[in-house]
Structure formats: C-alpha cells, structure tokens
# Entry
Amino acid sequence: MWFSLDTIVSWAKRKWFVYPNSEIYGGLANARDFGPYGSKLKKNIADIWVKHFTQERDDMVFMDTAIIAHPTTWKASGHLASFSDALIDDKQTGQRFRADKIIEDFFESKRDWMTDDELAEKYWVPNLSPESWGNDWMRDFIIKNIPNNPDTGKIAEWTDCRNFNLMLDTHLWPVANDASKVYMRPETCQSLFTDFKAVLDTTRSRIPFGLAQIWKAFRNEITPGQFLYRTREFEQMEIEYFVEDNEEIAMKAYNQWKEDCMNYWTNVVWISSDHLRFKDHEKLAHYAKAATDVEYLYPRGFGEIQWIHNRSNFDLTQHQNESWKDMQYSDPYTWKRYIPRCIEASFGLGRQVMVVMLEFYDEEELEWWDSRVVVRFPKKLAPVKFAILPLVKKDEKQVEIAKKIFKDLTKQFACEYDDNWAIGKRYRRQDEIWTPYCITVDQQSCEDGETVTIRDRDTMEQKRIKISEIADMM
# Structure
C-alpha cells in the first residue's frame, strides 16, 4: 500500500525524524534538519553502507576529504565550464524554473494513461530525457505544451532557456574578491581523484582498488523539493573504483558494480526488487563511457536514488594536465604505466533515508476498529533497538529493574526508557519509530528477579524471557 509523501513528511516531523530548517523564521527552502531519531537512522544507514562496501572488502579504502578544495580542482573537472542547469523564467511573475523539470513533471502527469513510447510518439520527441534535447528544443516544447506557470496556473510569458552554474561559492581571507573566491564542492569525488596518487604512495593499494567516502556536498539547485529528494545541502556516499586502462575490463567492472549495488538495495537494505529498476542514460556526461541510474518507485513514480558511471580516465587525466603531477599507475608485476579508468557508484544519503521511510511505513487495521502506525524496518537500521518499559511508573522495584536493564543494554544497543502513559499507548509509540522489541518490567519481574515480557513489533506477540537473554534477540 502506498502512502502520500505528505503523510511521510507529517509523520517524520511528528515522530522526531526530520524537521524543516529555520522553521521559527519561516523556513529555508527545502532545507531539512535530522531530529533525534532521524540522525540515528541516517547514521545506521551510513554505518551499514561503510560495512558492506569497505569493511567487508579488501580492495576499498575509506576517506574523509575537505569540503573546500583548491579552485583549480573545479576547472580541471569541468565544473566551472559545464556544471549547469538550463533555466527558464516566467516574465509575468519573475519565477525561475528548471526547464527539464517542468517537462518531466508534464510527462509524469500523463503516465497514468500513456506509456513512455506513446508519449514520445505523441509529442514528437526522441526520448523522455529533456535535458538531452538542447535548450531551444526544451523552450519550444514548453511554449507549445506547457503554456501555464506550474505554480500559479496562469498563462506564462516564457523566456529563452539559459544555463546557470550550480556551484555555491564563498571566500577565504578577509577581503572578498576574485582572488579569494572558492567553491563549496558540488560532489565529493574530485578530492578522491586529487588524493589518488597520495593513496598509492602511502598505502599498499594496488589496481584494482577503490576509494570511498561519505560527506557533505552543495548545489545551488533552482528547484529543490520533494522532501529529502533534492536539497541544496546533502550528503553523498561515493565510491571511485580504479581499474586497468582497458575498455573491456572497465565495462566488466561497470557491470559488476551494477550487480553489486542492486544486491545492496535488495539484500542489505531490503528494498523490494519490484520497486527498483535501472535506467540507462540516453545522453552521457562529457566524462562518461556508460551510465545508469538506480531508480526507486516513489509515490509520484520512478526517480533516481543512485547512479553508476564508467568515468573512463577523464578525471585523473584532467588533474594531471592541470597540476603537472604524474597520475600514472606503475604495475609492480608488468611494469606497465597508465592512467587507470574509474567506475563510480554514487548514493545520496538523504534519499536513502527517504526511501526507507516510504518503503517500510504502514498503517495497519486491527480488531475492534483499532489501528496502528507501524514501520516495519529491518532491525539493523532501527533507530531504537529496545524500549524498556516499567509497567507501573510508581512501583519503585519495577523502575529499579527497568533502569538497570536500560543501563546494561545501552552498552551494546540504542535503547529508550519510557514510563509515560498506559502501556498500550507506549507500545504504539514504539511501533511508530520502528523499535523491534519492547521490554516490559512487571510484578512477576519483581518476584522472580530474572524475567520480563518482550513484545515483537511486527507480530505484537508477547512472551516471557530471561533478562540475560534479551541481548540475544538482536
């Protein structure tokens, strides 16, 4: 059963997962803060990603690079010249929109009764990826088929499509001028490329091997929106995997990474395979030999959650040319020297949080006209693993036992102590935040000193177990 994005957004705020940023001042457009539970969920996802892609492999190195890099980094990578979106203005309102986004939303509104092939044929377009059409074609399509402003619904007076760079800039040093201008990185991978030689020189890494990191990136998106789907400040989880300078080997590695990433989504995060698909890029970036997106079935339709690129050896070559530093790899066995090719796997951490919320949120009808919100999240990602609940708040013995259990369990697991309201209401509260188990300390616990009642979130079944056995449930 699908639930609207509005339902998820409302629940996320009410249950301490995600808050609007600067809400007391009216908010900042689509900036979000992760609350007490949301920050734990985000960390759990990040930890599992690191464990799966780096800890459990012997060919990966984990990194943590700076947000601000030398400005020439972005000249070498091509971001200064070509990292832009085609934007179109409505002269009547002064509003600015991403041209490709307007067209994509137009197509999405018609997918309930038309297939992609029927859409392409009806509107005489080569594909349904408008960014590949060029600015003039996008403008002509908008004028002909989307005459109204998407926000106001009134007739728009559209301008030409123009490219605007998406990088956010700032200044170092006391005086703000062109000499002090630097950029907030729009992607995390470039520092991995500029550190490539340092890693080779100081570690035992040998081709093939990869560099991975999770950290902040910034893009001056003109149309952020859809909750955590597109924000100006976000966290990327990126892998740059280096292979021999051979096209056949690079494509084999590219296809292997496609398989590995889909395995991650379906067998590590447990997203239904019915809700996932690959979508190959019809127009490749200037650096790419092959590219695909992993897409998730959001309430509004399929949208990107990850991309996988065969970046060739473009980046290392560019940085070698700009820096005059040798980026070649010397094979210790064959003595061949070459600039390696690179396969990139890039994930958005915020989008992963959003996807698991959508995937596991549920509203369940119970007996006697009762219902509950329950989030059936895998145990390893749940923000709270155990809730410890004394049945009677005023019973000092129950409270004493409950607090001791809480103190012992928190050495291994994220736990929550809750003694407010009736026990049934506390159970519901934990169901809504994905807590797998509720531990209830009752009168029998006081009498025998060694057992408690444990309640399973999914089945709501309760049974008595020994206190010493609680940790084994995880």
In short: Residues 40 and 444 are 33 Å apart (CA to CA).
